[in-house]
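Researcher: Next sequence.
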Amino acid sequence: MCWNGINKLADRKKIKNNPRQRPWLTASLLGLLLIITLAAAFYFIFLRAGYTTGPVRPVYQYNQPHASTRLIIPVSQKRPFIAKIAIVIDDIGNQKKLAEEIMALDLNLSFSILPYRPFSKILARKAVSLGRDVLLHLPMEPQDHKWNPGKGALLLSMSRADILTTLTGDLAQVPMAAGVNNHMGSAFTENRAAMGTVLTDLRQHKGLFWLDSMTTPRSVGFAMAREMGLVSARRDIFLDNIQKSTAIIKQLDKLVNLARRQGHAIGIAHPHPETLKALKRYQYTLRQKVQLVGIKTIMLM
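Model: Next structure:
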């Protein structure tokens, strides 16, 4: 064989064994590799993950059946609204034992203290030591003069200066008072000039509020206080006008239902034996149905 034949045969073998000289083979291999990669990706992403083209359903708690489960909701959205009520015990200061028994109840009651009574100061300090809200129970002139509001009463016959002097003395009797509500006062609270003098002075004492006991439906105290920008509220229900525990419990039911309808409510009661008896019987219901708060909490709502 001549050298030319040998060289041609060697060149043919080099071409056959050199991939760079066969581009179609390289392209085929790359295409096959791409197909395998795409097939594997499709399997792991769609088939193995359980992909469905149907509508996406929400994830339910504990993988329970749809009919017996609920969507997971943040705790802050689950909490039900709890109505608030405040119960103010008026006329504190005349008798010690009964007042202390009411204060000893595991209830967040508020106490309104009469000025110049035998046990006013000691009971006011007792209430504060228990963490209870305290008010000044301000004596005011009633329409029926057979009722005596007692020492420290504000009268329509007084001059403006006398009203202010008397009010200052009354406040000094209960210096820890967070606010003021009227004792009697069905005549005084209907008089705009007289109430204007009182409320203007209360506004100058930082932090004091006005609670209108509403001893007359024609009281101007609450409306005037709001006009003046004084923190104020008015009594919703008297609880113990009828001094029988069964009747008082019915009034407590009304107070709770009212609070549930409007969010909060204020009741006023007095240190009577039947009131104590009713509160003892009803205290569990109060804890279950509403939140009993101090009067200051209602004032700030």
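Model: The two ends are 115 Å apart (CA to CA). The first strand starts at residue 84 and ends at 92.
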